[in-house]
Amino acid sequence: MTIPAAFHEDRKHFNLFALNGEGDVTLWQGSTRSHTHTGGGLAVGTLLLIEEDKYGVYSSLLFKYFLAEGVVCGHDLFVASAQDPPANIIKELPAPLLDDNFKTERVEATAAKSEDCQDSMQIAWRYQNAPKVETSPTTSMKFGHYYDVSKKMSPELLQSIKWHSFFLPDELPLEPKLKMCNMNCGYARLLRSIQSVIYQEGFDGSHPQKKQKNILRIGIQSLGSLLWDDDICSTNTPEDIHSLTKFLYVLRGLLRKSLSACIITMPSHLIENKAIMERVTNLSDMVVGLESFIGSERETNPLYKDYHGLLHVHQIPRLNSLICDVSDTKDLAFRLKRKQFTVERLHLPPDLSDTVSRSSKQDLAESAKLLSSGCGAVAIGKKHLDF
User: Fold this and answer.
1) CA neighbours within 13 Å on the CB side: how many for 63?
2) Which residues contact 32 (CB under 8 A, 6 or more apart)?
């Protein structure tokens, strides 16, 4: 992953971004926990694909987190959708937590967790001196912001940034059908709209720009669904099987030479042709899947009572390296608290069942009789002799 030339010309305008150890400009994704588990952020010029959960509840929340972080950092936004008008998506962005409010929330959460631990230690007394498991990773550097999902972002904060929109139902009636590279009409117009914003608004990193440098955050909602006039979710043999992959291929070319980053949500559980999904994964830099417990057996399973779903990290980008960053754990779960969306390491609670797994005194007595008769005797009790 190479940094566009325009970044080196005027680096002082990128004080809102952080450089990782490999020299790449990384953006905060919006969710603190998912940022830590996916390689430390989304690099400029890369594509993040989120496989939607069954009902699209939590994928939509991560989508809004990404856009909300762009508003707080002063980045430009490009919101594309075929279902919800982009103006409504912008209005529903979560409100950022101020430093004082965030500290208060953290103190209350820590106090509540310590009380729970004290209560649990009265039962599991043998684990009292065991080291505590950190379910949420901690970082030494404060990077990014926290958001309150119970509140909406203020209109004053939304007016301070510049955003562009693409709503497919409003675009289709305006012009005759546009075919580009054997791609369906919706994808072709979306690419043309993204390309015009990159070139006209000064996000083209391959040429010197006269305007002040900034980052463009691109968000595309539910790409590949029937609302985008694509039939890959309705049949195993779609009419144009390569339309979606061609779109992603051209989009990555635009991202690589521009000061932009893109997030796409896709209903992968509806795509019947798995070969298409494999190509989509290969054309993405980072792939994250959400598995919600809504309507499944795990929703009532006591082992998962503290969580609302699982997070699967399928692919992490290789930035200036032959291998990608390997996380210390792959078992991740998420839950939506009253105000925040958190991703934690999945660890099951201890087994506190009523039945005792040890052998009863009667079984031990029968085993003793067998041992006294010699090793060559045949076991005639309920339990066979164990060596």
Assistant:
1) 30
2) 144, 146, 342
Question: If phi over 0 gives left and psi between -120 and 50 gives alpha, with beta otherwise, what is residue 93?
Answer: beta
Residue 76 has pLDDT above 70, yes or no: yes
**Contact of 288 with 51, CB cutoff 8 Å:** yes
For residues 168 and 192, give the distance between their C-alpha atoms in angstroms, rounded to a whole number. 13
Is 70 exceeded by the pLDDT of residue 48? yes
Got the DSSP string for 23-62?
S-EEE--S-HHHHHHTTSSEETT-EEEEEPPTTSHHHHHH
Q: Alpha-carbon distance 380 to 287, whole Å? A: 58
Euclidean distance between CA atoms 136 and 148, whole angstroms: 18
Residues in Cβ contact with 43 at an 8 Å cutoff, skipping those fewer than 6 apart? 1, 24, 25, 26, 27, 261, 285, 317, 319
Question: What pLDDT score was predicted for residue 352?
Answer: 54
Q: Is 247 in contact with 229 (CB distance < 8 Å)?
A: no
Give the pLDDT confidence score for residue 10 in this predicted structure. 37
- What does the pLDDT read at residue 66? 93
CB 265 within 8 A of CB 221: yes
In the 3-class helix/strand/coil scheme, how is 282-326 assigned residue by residue?
Answer: HCCCEEEEEEECCCCHHHCCHHHCCCCEEEEEEECCCCCCCCCCC
Residue-level pLDDT at 78: 97
Tokens standing for residue 267: 């209903």
Tens digit of each residue's pLDDT (9 = 90 or more) over 173-193: 655 555 566 788 889 999 999
Confidence (pLDDT) at 89 = 96
- Helices 243-256 and 274-282: angle between axes, nearest 10 degrees: 10
Burial 6-34 (b: 16+ CB within 10 A, else e): bbeeeeeebeebbeeeeebbbbbbbbbbb
Q: How many angstroms separate the Cα of 2 from the Cα of each of 47, 48, 87, 88? A: 14, 17, 34, 35
**Rounded to an integer, what distance in angstroms lies between the CA atom of residue 99 and that of residue 93?**
19
